[in-house]
Amino acid sequence: MTGKSESMKRLEERIIKCRKCPLGELRTNAVPGSGSYESKVMFVGEGPGYWEDQEGLPFVGRAGKVLDELLESIGLTRDKVYITNIVKCRPPNNRDPTEEEVKACSPYLDMQIDLIRPKIIVPLGRHSMAYILRKFGFDPEPISKIHGKTFEARTLFGKIVIMPVYHPAVALYRPQLKEELQQDFKKLKDFYRN
Ligand code: SF4
Ligand code: URA
């Protein structure tokens, strides 16, 4: 095992046992993330839902099916990318995570980013967009305005491109936004290739 995958495994084990915030008491399973530690692209959702909590894996419910389709449309599969969330345990009734919960949990995401060193981060939905843009020094804007746009951040390990997109769950009830998601994924494909 490489140093990176050992560190990632150790981090995932810490997350699975974590009780740093109240969500830890309510979950069935924590959901650290899944996919390739060597991935150039990292997808960041909001938090586990019912099925993710049941299975301990990100995006395995209905929104996950949409994400699979979008990945497939650009020649990717989930084992080639890394997928995780801002909070690793399910907020009850799928409510938004509180500020305290995000504060408690986001250091894990920060460490995942530092270990994987992705070239592209794709925040899925507005909460993730807000967290990631702020983290890299940008002001969040309405997702309707900036989805599919790219932001270039400098880090200690080089340049990262951030491209927020709508959350795949919106595609389930708003066909217009599904088309926008498909368009944005085409852009992602071009970035991914270069
Ligand atoms: Fe720990 Fe994050 Fe789960 Fe809270 S949500 S218990 S901080 S892993
Ligand atoms: N929605 C999310 O934001 N994340 C998941 O893992 C599943 C649904």
From TrEMBL:
Any GO molecular function: uracil DNA N-glycosylase activity
Catalytic activity as recorded in UniProt: Hydrolyzes single-stranded DNA or mismatched double-stranded DNA and polynucleotides, releasing free uracil
Keyword DNA repair on entry: yes
GO biological process per UniProt: DNA repair
Record-annotated Uracil-DNA glycosylase-like domain positions: 32-186
This protein's UniProt keywords: 4Fe-4S, DNA damage, DNA repair, Hydrolase, Iron, Iron-sulfur, Metal-binding, Nucleotidyltransferase, Transferase
SMART domains, sorted: UDG, UreE_C
Pfam families referenced in this protein's UniProt entry, alphabetically: UDG
EC number(s) from the headed UniProt entry: 3.2.2.27
Root EC class: hydrolase
UniProt family annotation: Belongs to the uracil-DNA glycosylase (UDG) superfamily. Type 4 (UDGa) family.
NCBIfam families: Arch_udg, UDG_fam4
PANTHER family to which the protein is assigned, alphabetical: TYPE-4 URACIL-DNA GLYCOSYLASE (PTHR33693:SF1), TYPE-5 URACIL-DNA GLYCOSYLASE (PTHR33693)
The name this protein goes by in its record: Type-4 uracil-DNA glycosylase
Organism: Thermococcus sibiricus (strain DSM 12597 / MM 739)
Lineage per the UniProt record: Archaea, Methanobacteriati, Methanobacteriota, Thermococci, Thermococcales
